[in-house]
């Protein structure tokens, strides 16, 4: 699948619309069982290149116009999966790919009001741009809590349990990094704009 146009205007940058567009692409690819995707991008679009690399796109060539051709695979074989850590396998072949061997699963309770803000795409009716908040538009999210658990590692799976009303598990996530701290400034630097 070729991604033909991928652009967020200057005045809308920082609201995670790029991730929202990628989320739509990944959903289409998963629903249609497409094995790979690619796009072309000029080197001066550094933010876009960093975003694509964070989601497992790799430069495979440079075309005659001087654009980098960046591609991402969604199909894997057993050797590929075994050679990668749980997190690296998720980045390379997902989302939604998750390596189930070699990591643990944690259930994270989340109140309905926070669930709807973090995961607006799971609401019954959404607009074209599902989230009003950048963190709701993003694929990568920061979750801050007062849990006593200190055993969560990169690659572990999180199942978000919507408590009180729905009492169901959705969605799931893969841990990228963790931090244990009581210092607000340190937490703020760690989560950044997430």
Describe it for me?
By secondary structure, this protein is α+β, with helices and mostly antiparallel strands. Helix content is 29%, strand content 19%. It has seven helices and six strands, in the order H-E-H-E-E-H-H-E-H-H-E-E-H. The strands form two sheets. A three-stranded antiparallel beta sheet has the order 1-3-2, covered by helices on one side. The protein has a three-stranded mixed beta sheet with strand order 4-5-6. A hairpin with a 5-residue loop joins strand 5 and strand 6. The longest helix has 15 residues. The radius of gyration is 18 Å and the shape is globular.
Oligomeric category:
single chain
N-to-C terminal Cα separation, in Å? 29 Å
Low-confidence stretches: none
Helix content: 25-40%
Number of helices: 7
Q: Spell the H/E element sequence.
A: HEHEEHHEHHEEH
Task: Please outline the major beta sheet.
Answer: 3 strands, antiparallel
Shape: globular
Give me the side-by-side strand order of the main sheet. Answer: 1-3-2
Instruction: Work out the radius of gyration.
Output: 18 Å
Q: Which structural category do the helix and sheet elements fall into?
A: alpha+beta
In short:
By secondary structure, the chain is α+β, with helices and mostly antiparallel strands.
């Amino acid at each position: 699948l070729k991604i033909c146009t991928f652009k967020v205007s200057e005045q809308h940058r920082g609201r995670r619309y790029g991730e929202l567009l990628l989320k739509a692409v990944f959903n289409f690819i998963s629903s249609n069982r497409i094995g790979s995707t690619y796009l072309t991008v000029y080197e001066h679009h550094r933010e876009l290149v960093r975003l694509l690399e964070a989601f497992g796109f790799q430069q495979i060539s440079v075309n005659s116009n001087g654009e980098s051709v960046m591609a991402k695979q969604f199909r894997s074989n057993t050797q590929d999966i075994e050679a990668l850590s749980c997190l690296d396998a998720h980045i390379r072949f997902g989302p939604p790919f998750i390596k189930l061997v070699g990591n643990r699963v944690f259930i994270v309770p989340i109140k309905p009001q926070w669930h709807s803000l973090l995961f607006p795409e799971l609401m019954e009716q959404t607009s074209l741009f599902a989230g009003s908040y950048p963190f709701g538009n993003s694929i990568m999210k920061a979750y801050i809590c007062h849990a006593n658990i200190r055993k969560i590692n990169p690659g572990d799976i999180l199942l978000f349990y919507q408590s009180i009303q729905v009492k169901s598990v959705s969605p799931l996530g893969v841990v990228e990094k963790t931090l244990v701290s009581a210092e607000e400034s340190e937490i703020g630097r760690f989560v950044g704009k997430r």
